[in-house]
Design a protein that fits this description.
By secondary structure, the protein is of the alpha/beta class. Helix content is about 50%, strand content about 10%. Strand 1, helix 2 and strand 2 form a beta-alpha-beta unit. Bound molecules: phosphoenolpyruvate and manganese (II) ion (MN).
Amino acid sequence: MNTQKDLGNWIKKITGNYPLMIAGPCSAETEEQVLETAKQMIDKRIHVFRAGVWKPRTRPGNFEGHGEKALPWLKKVKDETGLKIAIEIANAEHAKLALDYDIDILWIGARTSVNPFAVQEIANTIKDTKKIVLIKNPINPDLSLWIGAVERFYQAGVTNLGVIHRGFSNFRPGNYRNDPQWQIALRFKKEYPNIPIILDPSHICGRRDCIYDMSQTALDLKYQGFMIETHINPDEAWSDAKQQVTPTRLKEIIDKLCLRKQQFQDPDAIDKINFYREQINQLDDELIKLLSERMDLAQNIGQLKKTKNVAVLQENRWAEIMNKAIAKGNEFELSKKFIEKIFSAIHQESIDKQEKILKK
Ligand code: PEP
Ligand code: MN
């Protein structure tokens, strides 16, 4: 996808140089709830009101949204507050209704962007629209599937595009409801720097106490905006109660967020950073040379294993290496998680090299 430079210009038109702030309840529950939430949100740093009208629920039996009935409520929000309106659309019928009701921003949910048929159907329905379309990452950590969904809209002539990073499902309960896997979003950003990337910390965290922290990390990684679930009475919300914040709390979070400069400007700091970077470059070269020497030794062992017909995997030796590395890492304040990742990768490369020798 060879994207045009002006794909993300819509964001600047809305916010100037500040991050885009989309906020509002997970679901539009009642007319009063959406209107009251929106009124309490009025602030020049908040630009868009979000609300789910069709709610894709993991298990049946939960509130699935009011559908079309809620669309006039959102029109009222727009008329009374001046906020732009964003809703999720999941099929061609939703897409048509969103256009009929002149909704400003349409987003594709994480359970829809996994499905190329659904994405294509929506892209065909809204083709050539000047509306803003935001594509959430698919629930599974598949960068190509995410890019593919964006491509389907781009090819249908939708040019006001953006993506929303909302984290990825985990099988085991982790720290967060959805694992952020920042590397996937950063790979997206690297490949498509003209497409704005927005963080949805609410669906990543799954709880309200880490929304600020997650959002600051995103700003530090040069994300261009946020979608934060906001409700007048979060504990009573009909969906995603634990992760929603009040409008007051939302404004406190915005107050606390620190916008970083895009680049170093002061010459002294530039000198210092170059000095550190030069040393990092040298250390990286040495790391690679050391890794290569380590692999040479692993290959010698591979030759021996072949001659003596011994299996590649030696669990005891591997456990011994890992335990030693974790203990050493601990001495140097390197986390267990980090050491495990690095050494697992090194071990895998050694195995691959030895396998090659044994199969020769
Ligand atoms: C939502 O934004 O309320 C929602 C359903 O999000 P996601 O598609 O990220 O699960
Ligand atoms: Mn939600």
